[in-house]
Amino acid sequence: MSSLEPVFVSLKTAQAVLALQNRQQKDDALRGAASAINAARVEILAANRADLEKARANGMKEALIDRLLLNDKRIDGIIEGIETVIRQEDPIGKVKAGWTLPNGLFIEQTTVPMGVAAIIYESRPNVTADAFSLAYKAGCAILLRGSSAALESNRAIVKAIKQGLADGGGIPDALALADSGSRNEVDEILSARGFIDVVLPRGGRELIRRVVDNARVPVIETGEGNCHIYVEPDADPVNAVDIIENAKLQKPGACNAVETLLVKSPALPRIMPLLAQRLAGKAELRCDERSRAAIGEPPPGLVLKDAVEEDWETEFLDYILAVKTVDSLKEAIDHINRYGTKHSEAILTNNHRHAQVFSEQVDAACVYVNASTRFTDGGEFGFGAELGISTQKFHARGPMGLEALTTIKYLISGTGQTRE
Amino acid sequence: MSSLEPVFVSLKTAQAVLALQNRQQKDDALRGAASAINAARVEILAANRADLEKARANGMKEALIDRLLLNDKRIDGIIEGIETVIRQEDPIGKVKAGWTLPNGLFIEQTTVPMGVAAIIYESRPNVTADAFSLAYKAGCAILLRGSSAALESNRAIVKAIKQGLADGGGIPDALALADSGSRNEVDEILSARGFIDVVLPRGGRELIRRVVDNARVPVIETGEGNCHIYVEPDADPVNAVDIIENAKLQKPGACNAVETLLVKSPALPRIMPLLAQRLAGKAELRCDERSRAAIGEPPPGLVLKDAVEEDWETEFLDYILAVKTVDSLKEAIDHINRYGTKHSEAILTNNHRHAQVFSEQVDAACVYVNASTRFTDGGEFGFGAELGISTQKFHARGPMGLEALTTIKYLISGTGQTRE
């Protein structure tokens, strides 16, 4: 007997009702949720302090403590996320295509909710509210399976949301927290065929691999980003170094941070000395022979190593940048298509034709011309909250907002037609 | 060592080239394929005769022999299918959405090919050409794994297509037949992560279950259709019986054939006697008590049985129709959402509000108002050939044409933007 089965049934029942709500009803309910989170600040912050104390007692690293931490500003961010979702168009009931057959049958392809989603995530409690609000707006019920480290915070947020949904005339049973803390819960979710229509793993590589390998329900794979920036000689060198610095240093632990820089050989003298100066004391460079030589005398504080094959394959998620010299656009594209994870890839160039070829031939969710890879993000793209960044090609690709939680239905109306 | 690995590599390499071809190039290649099939009629029919002889010698049933059979008319149909695909718009390079961020970054969501598809199918040799032509137009390479019964026919068709692609300036390596006949081949395809981007099983329930349960690459589930027609009292009775007869008798083995008729109680006297007359000698009725009583004296030749619970769950794929009386629209919708396979469901009514409620609340790929369920078909929908009918909600739903073989890519162009 599955311990989560009553929860699955309750979510499925709630989703059938939510699927029929119009935008006004869904937005009113979301406004209720945002107000209730605002009103429950004291309780949410107290719950978060309890999680933080426990985490510190268990020796959690400070970087992870920071992910877990809530404060008034972060609660403002959670509320702003819900408000952005409220402002989005309703993704449901859109006619994507429509046509009439020769026999007069009229066919419409319309968007409908995917159904019941589950999200399995790590410590950040804001994901709880983000994922809920996107799911609710898309007419989907959602099962939230956060990390045990954030359990009290998540309970307080979910309690506030349910209260707010009730206040706003919404459907409180459209979300549920899987909060027994047992690892077995994850297995139950991954095999809940007929109950869970999609599972979204959001977190580190180990979590995602475990979900992808074990799921018997549809999964959207997220996260892994071995991203590249390729620089051509006619790119403005200062702007190029600005972009590389931004893509590497602004948040090195993010999946859209750059990991390997590819420099077309004639650009080496324009780029490498400037880049070495800029990153000295901030990030380690792992260079191939030609790019290392182009630096000349290393500036004080620069950590400089020789790149090895493994560096091209590694998502460092750290203050480390691998640098490789290429002799052609084709060599750059081949390197990216071989070592990349199809996440975010950039070319810095003023050559229009090269920008086009790179955009066409690089196989990735997001291909940038003359911009930092760090923009691959639902918030930056204007989706409000995000469900994660899909690195697969099936069903959803790139930053996932409301659309990822929809599917289609064909509505066919006739006047008595039969098939010949 | 995988015996199919060289084939996977060759398909992947060919796909990278095909992905960059424009519509003109793809259509020219498809025209070459259609001409070559036309020119190879003698060889294809000879190969088909060899398959048929072997099948008869192995005691294959006549219904299955008919599926395997090719003749000039069926080859005309194969060619016409390719020509219809040629007439379709190119599904690749469409900008589905585009917007500019406040910082000036311009984002476009464009369609790109899914990559390498594999289709695992049973005996019908026309699927070979249908699946190839859709894949090619969508910029996808395709691995064809037909049944061993159709091996010689498929070899002859694939040989002609490859010749035609060469003649038309296309890419012959964009298709391959997995023709060792070993069952192990299917397992290799199902675990070819990194090589195969999507697997389409097309055939009976056993084949589909085997693929869905074992695949480690994305699968689109197809086929199972426990379809319903629900009749209200204000539907025209003669037209209603025309539609029911069409949906049951025109091709009972098809997944879009009706299996259970739901009759709202006041409609029983208008529908049941007429239906009993119409189906007498043609199909068996399995009725609940009230619908059986409404028939009165059974007409000569009518096979009439009492329905049992199992009948509501069964996709008969045969000349059998289950009939159940319901007392409300809600009861009909609940029955369908409980027993249906989310394939094709129809309401026959003149009540506008009821048609709307049924369309909204029935969870199925295709919902019909006043028409036969038999129209759920890529050809009927105007897609040209079809890859199958998806009964899942993830990635593709309903009859699958070109769109099911596409995914998206975000192209982001900037003028040096970095993230704040």
Q: What is the total number of structural domains of chain A?
A: 2
The main pleated sheet of chain A reads as: 7 strands, parallel
Q: Residue ranges of chain A: pLDDT <50 for 5 or more in a row?
A: none
Radius of gyration of chain A (CA) equals 24 Å
What is the count of helical runs of chain A? 16
Count every beta strand of chain A, where a strand is a DSSP E run of 2 or more residues.
16
Share of β-strand residues of chain A: 15-25%
Largest interface: A-B, 59 and 59 residues
Written description of the protein model:
The structure is a homodimer of 420-residue chains. With 420 residues, chain A is an alpha/beta fold. Chain A folds into two domains: 5-220 and 400-413, Aldehyde Dehydrogenase, Chain A, domain 1; 227-380, Aldehyde Dehydrogenase, Chain A, domain 2, CATH 3.40.309. Helix content of chain A is 43%, strand content 21%. Chain A is built from 16 helices and 16 strands. Chain A has helices at residues 5-18, 23-39, 41-57, 62-68, 72-87, 126-137, 151-167, 184-190, 205-214, 237-249, 268-279, 289-295, 309-313, 329-339, 352-361, 378-381; strands at 95-100, 106-113, 116-121, 141-145, 175-177, 198-202, 227-231, 258-264, 284-287, 303-306, 320-326, 344-348, 366-371, 389-390, 398-399, 406-417. In chain A, helix 3 packs antiparallel against helix 7 and helix 5 (72-87) runs parallel beside helix 6 (126-137). Chain A is globular, with a radius of gyration of 24 Å. The model of chain A has no long low-confidence stretch (mean pLDDT 95).
